[in-house]
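Section: protein folds

Sequence with per-residue tokens
===
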Amino acid sequence: MSRMSLFNSPHLLGFDHVERVLDQVAKSANEGYPPYNIEQTGDNALRITLAVAGFGDGDLSVTVEENQLVIRGRRTEDADGRVFLHRGIATRQFQRAFVLAEGIEVQDAQQDNGLLHIDLKRPVPETQVKTIPIRPGRTGSRTVIDSTVAQETKND
């Protein structure tokens, strides 16, 4: 069965990257672990906070790959011989990806009390005003209306 796409229209040329971004978002929406929050911390600033209890600084990586922010967690198993009667704190490996809009920059990442905070910023583009010079028209290229046709129109 072939997949029908909104972007297969011959009138939508060059939008294949939008379709890829939508596919990436759909795939990452199905992930449930680890839980996260996204908050606006300023006019052009965001913070993503992931619950990463049990992961140390060396167990986590934050990378930007093309237009995606990718957070990976891989915890090494404890080899100290502990026997768990109940293990309710999930420390399984994970990968969580967020699609970034054009221009979004990752400013900082820090881990604090089992939470990984990633600060993002959208730089405000400098307003640019460009004046376009208006060239004078060519006087020799004007269209001349036949005066007899113009007079006949006035007399009617």
The first helix runs from residue 16 to 29. The beta strands are 36-42, 45-51, 60-65, 68-73, 94-99, 105-112, 115-121. Residues 58 and 75 are 9 Å apart (CA to CA). The chain has one domain: 10-124.
